[in-house]
Amino acid sequence: MHAPHKRAARRSTRPVRIAVIAVGLALTAIPVAAYAGSPTHQAAQQPAAAAPKAAAATGLDDPAKKEIAMQLVSSAENSSLNWKSQYKYIEDIDDDRGYTAGIIGFCSGTGDMLDLVELYTERKPGNVLAKYLPALRKVNGTPSHSGLDPNFTKDWVKAASDSAFQQAQNDERDRVYFNPAVKQGKADGIGTLGQFAYYDAIVMHGDGGDSTGFSSIRKRALSKAKPPSQGGNEVTYLNAFLDARVWAMKQEEAHEDTSRVDTAQRVFLKKGNLNLDPPLDWKVYGDSYHIG
């Protein structure tokens, strides 16, 4: 794995907790060929006449495509395709967001780490991280470690071996980032690649009210092109969205490397791979990755 400073942190507002439906994930990368005989895969392969073009792909929430999404994000966040090895990850990457940790980069300074530990404690009272809840509430919105050091990082690693904590990470990732991205993508009539572009943007930038949040990026794109749901061309719209995303990334020094867009998402788009079908080859920070 390359230097962890490559992880890209993001802003995040703390959303109101809602009921979470756990989404089952394959615990290892599964070759797409394994899905060839499944009804889901077969549906995605039907002729265009069987469904409107925008809905032809099952979407990023198809289990095989979701696994690909997790690996793509991990290549940028962790310089590794093995996203499940990141449950235990934790460090301060000096981005003024306190500790960054877990499979999606939950931050002690942005509220999503607090939400995660609250969920974990609701499900498993007395867990090893529960005692840090008062401190996490105090440091929310700051880069401070007050009340967390010196043992929080060690206890995080301990908690990461608990399947209940792993599931809580999965569920918070889906509630705050994955599900909203897919929902908005489908509403805009964009396919699997576009839904992934939305997801990756929310992961990095959050969806707060600032000028570089996901909603602002999308609004910037809409000022340049119409999405398919409004009669626009999907490729044209996605190019506009990626342009807006690059602009947002360049507003902050921590995000100045735009390769996760330029040599990854843009590569898939130029190839017309709107369904994000393997094989996939891309680069992030100059490192090459492949999903067969």
Automatic annotation (TrEMBL):
Matches recorded under InterPro entries: Glyco_hydro_46, Glyco_hydro_46_N, Lysozyme-like_dom_sf
Compartment(s) of residence: Secreted
Catalytic activity: Endohydrolysis of beta-(1->4)-linkages between D-glucosamine residues in a partly acetylated chitosan
Enzymatic class: hydrolase
Gene3D superfamilies linked to this entry: Chitosanase, subunit A, domain 1, Chitosanase, subunit A, domain 2
Any one biological process term the GO annotation gives: carbohydrate metabolic process
GO molecular function, one term: chitosanase activity
Residues the record marks as active site: 77, 95
Keywords on record: Glycosidase, Hydrolase, Secreted
Pfam families hit by this protein: Glyco_hydro_46
A GO-annotated cellular component: extracellular region
E.C. numbers: 3.2.1.132
Family: Belongs to the glycosyl hydrolase 46 family.
Function: Aids in the defense against invading fungal pathogens by degrading their cell wall chitosan.
Protein name, UniProt field: Chitosanase
Organism lineage: Bacteria, Bacillati, Actinomycetota, Actinomycetes, Kitasatosporales
